[in-house]
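Chapter summary example: a protein plus iron/sulfur cluster.
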Amino acid sequence: MPTFYKCQRCTACCRWPGQVKLTDEEVSQMSSHLELSEHEFIQEYTRVRADRRGLSLKDKPNGECILLEESKCRVQPVKPQQCRDFPNLWNFPGFQKDCDAIAIPVDGEEYRKRVKEATGRHPPESFGG
Ligand code: SF4
Ligand code: SF4
């Protein structure tokens, strides 16, 4: 039976090291949400990725995502797809040690419905086993 992970908004995934990759469309949506021009948003909140193939969000000096403010995401309604997809469409071995998401066994149809609601995307057929 597939397992859906229900996020508890503990924000641990906004605090651990890693790159949050951004698409051009996401830059545009987040700029609008913060009432900034794209240029201002890029200057203030992004950096060039390690592979130099695009932009990612900056970290604060303590390693948290720059858009985390008092345990809330400043761009929650338009947060990057990478953030939406964790932990249902990507995760890593042992992620449950740090992530408070509740594992809920559901049937296949319910799994696809819940993942679509959480991520805005349909899970690939190979997911959810
Ligand atoms: S953009 Fe929002 S959800 Fe994504 S890591 Fe930053 S604070 Fe967390
Ligand atoms: S996905 Fe997990 S680590 Fe991230 S906020 Fe939700 S419960 Fe916390």
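Key point: The beta strands are 3-6, 21-22, 46-48, 55-57, 68-69, 72-73, 102-105.
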